[in-house]
Amino acid sequence: MPGAGLKVAEKAVAGVAGPAIQLVDLTKRYRANLAVAGVTMSVPRGEVFGFLGPNGAGKTTVVKLLLGLARPSLGQGAVLGEPLGSREARRRIGYLPELFRYQGWLEAREVLALHCELAGVPLRLRPGAIETALETAGLADRGRDRVETFSKGMQQRLGLAVALLGDPQLVLLDEPTSALDPVGRHDVRDIIRGLKQRGVAVFLNSHLLSEVEQVCDRVAVVDHGRVVAQGPLAELLAAPQVRIRCTGLGGESMAGLRRRWAFHQDGDWLSVAGIAAAEVPDLVAALVSAGARIHAVEPGQQTLEERFLQLVEQP
Length: 315
Ligand SMILES: Nc1ncnc2c1ncn2[C@@H]1O[C@H](COP(=O)(O)OP(=O)(O)OP(=O)(O)O)[C@@H](O)[C@H]1O
Ligand SMILES: [Mg+2]
Fold this sequence. Notes:
The chain is of the alpha/beta class. Helix content is about 35%, strand content about 30%. The model is unreliable at about 1-15 (pLDDT under 50).
């Protein structure tokens, strides 16, 4: 209910401890392009929240609005109980941007020292904070090396180290593992779990659905600037489904079957979500009478990827 949400946001804006993020009807228009189209959502403190969507869906724009790097055209929001973009909120946020470059001539330690200064980390705490950040990001032995000698993945690790400085209460990670190898991705998942254990909320923009599935408590799926689904991961994937490997189905026979069931097709695999177990024999019989040869029938839960494709493929 937008009205109720608005009250919550107003309260949060007024300084009462609210959720980590509260957005009400947040909208961003770039000329004719509606990048964010009325997003209402809430991220509880201390949770890992996955923000998913296809390219151009508006994920990075939402992060920029959260930080005050872009101003909303309409709507409002609060971060850690403070208005969007306020200095107080920013001081308590860690941020790994999607695209960034540090000066190549700086050593990793110098980059971190600069960001300690920017984040207002007290002088006496800086050496320890830099050491911990390097250690956590897996760069303990590269602190004295210049950024220009770093591989793409090492630069992303350094960006993550910067985001962890200053004991943030909320960490915004925009595609944190796009340049990382499988070991790096595993490390980042561990870092995210560690943050959660310390009560830090994490807002994770990611295309890597398996990654989101492994670490997130709650997710929102955004498409064309709108949130098309949100909730606890377990609820979002609650629909039972059946997967069937079959060959020999023509387009025409499929058209008839689609009137009765909503299929998702991936090569020889068909999946049908939300189907009752008692209906599966009917489905198999209908496929066979449409000329299909059935090789496997597997009941199970939807994967996040299947749910995601179902949500963003709808016309
Ligand atoms: N500064 C800008 N000026 C004009 N249009 C913009 C600007 N920034 C973003 N957009 C547009 O807003 C829409 C959303 O972009 P955004 O970068 O938020 O998408 P995204 O979901 O982060 O995509 P990706 O997965 O590719 O990173 C796109 O249509 C993009 O072209
Ligand atoms: Mg983006």
